Amino acid sequence: MGDMAKKALGRGLKALFQDDGFVSVSKDEAEEPAPVGSIGSLSIEKIIANPFQPRKEFDETALEELKNSILENGVIQPVTVCRDGDGYQLISGERRLRAVTLAGFKFIPAYVIEAHDDSTKLELALIENIQREDLNAIEIALALKSLTTKCNLTQEEIAQKVGKNRSTVSNFLRLLKLPLQIQDSIRSREISSGHARALVNLPGEQQQLKVWKQILSHQLSVRQTEALVSRMFKEQSKPLQTASSERSSYLTELESMLRNNLATKVRIVEKKGGKGEIHIQYFSNDDLDRLLELMRHE
What we know:
Blueprint: H1 3-10, H2 13-16, E1 39-43, E2 47-48, H3 60-73, E3 79-84, E4 87-92, H4 94-102, E5 107-113, H5 118-132, H6 137-149, H7 155-162, H8 166-174, H9 180-187, H10 193-200, H11 205-218, H12 222-237, H13 249-262, E6 266-270, E7 276-280, H14 285-297
């Protein structure tokens, strides 16, 4: 995007099309957009909805506020579209498109990109929205899952495309294994993604629901939730610890440290001759991936 376009977007829709070859535009009148790779004005009637939109909920109050902002300042950032027959398919910017429609505009600034097939459109739409939109953690997780199932991308490839660490991608995907009640709680932002990451470390649905209810009833912070989960792991591991009075306090402390750092059951078995074993439990392939990623960073 050129400097002229960037400055114009900052002043809203009308400023985009004035000088240096840009056409003038009003609320009700505009020219067709520039070629692929450029920004221009596009008739809202020619834009079809994005079938791959990861956002499932649109807050009416927030849309009304965005509409008022657009009426006052214009559209600050263009939507992204690709050609689709005689019209265009929205890639990202559905909130802006809805708000502009509410504001009574017939045209919207649009950045036109190239996408030849549905697979490419899907990939672009999901990546654009993950990077740009204020999605909740479950919407992000579902979008990432679509990239794995519908676009056949590995977690490593997804991480590169969306600019996140592989462990971050894995942690988002693990949220989809939580009970639906907890997923709904994340969607409504009743609990945060930090709470969710602590809950997903618990091995069973019953325990996850139990801690979730405590988060709600006692308004626990993320740190308090993590401490609660850690205590639960300690209690569960007590029967596995050796009863020998000769067990060194160092091994006990080391076992506790590993358990807290890895957020899973860890048992150190001491044997004769200074030898021993470290038993680390995991509860799924994704949990194993998480542990391996933690160990690499350590």
